[in-house]
Design brief:
By secondary structure, the protein is mainly alpha-helical. Helix content is 50%, strand content 6%. The longest helix has 19 residues.
Length: 70
């Protein structure tokens, strides 16, 4: 069974969606990217998140958007 990419638990930041195994909200990544920061800058600021988690998140978002448009 695959480990979920994102966790939402009332005991962790009041249920805010975070990258599994961290206390880093997914919104932090989208905010950084929206501000023009690179993935490397995000990883420097949030080392508990792995590059693999970010890539998987972006690939899943792309797939969902493509499916919604099709």
């Amino acid at each position: 069974m695959k480990t979920p990419l994102i966790t939402s638990d009332p005991e962790i930041l009041g249920g805010t969606p975070v990258f599994t195994g961290t206390r880093v909200p997914v919104k932090n990544l989208t905010d950084c990217l929206e501000a023009g920061d690179s993935i490397d800058e995000f990883l420097d600021d949030f080392p508990s998140v792995s590059r693999a988690q970010i890539v998987e998140f972006l690939e899943e978002a792309r797939a969902r958007l493509s499916a919604a448009v099709a």
